[in-house]
What does this fold into?
Amino acid sequence: MTLALLSVFGKSFLFVLAAMLPILNPAATAPIFLSLTEGAAQPTRRLLARRIALNMFWLMAASMLIGSYVLDFFGISLPIVRVGGGLFSASMAWRRLGASPDNVDSRAELADSLTPVRARRQAVYPLTFPISCGPGSIAVAITVGVTLHDEGLLLSAANMGGALLALLLIGLILYLAFRYADRFLKMLGEAGAAVFVRMSAFILLCMGVQIIWDGVGALVLEAARTISVQLAA
It folds into this structure.
């Protein structure tokens, strides 16, 4: 029995890691984190990176554990979450693509205004949601959570234990990516960093459009099934 539970634990750990890490993609969101905190002091960035990683863990864990029940309570389907969240992510990426580069004065003003209190607020919105873990990752987490639920209490606990351990590892990767992203961009130089930030915003825009497309496709299929059932009746 113990070996079986360990096997279930390991399988759920690898499953959640493979499912969530590519869509959360800390390497792609780290440049956006830097651009949104440009001018902030290093201690403030470290604080933000730590809080964002913790927020991501709790948000993804809650989505896996109770996300499906919350959606059922409000009568919201996963395709609707994908469409609404994709629109939101795409709009933010579009604004980042069209943003003009900050000058020295604006960076200094941001550095003065980004106090620890304000940093704690921004760690939730928009740096945790929707930049670090957006609607697409929440929808995936809810779907994964439904998959991991089991009628047996011990098996369900083993599944969720492996899932939570995978989320902890992803949170550590996210923290390290945000914590040391400035060192990576320094190697690219100012021009290279600007290009990399724009490319990351474009990738986020494409991800938002993909999430919208998936949601619309699911809604169209659902509507087609409903119509076919009504015509058959």
Observations:
- Confidence is low (pLDDT under 50) at residues 102-111.
- The chain has one domain: 2-232.
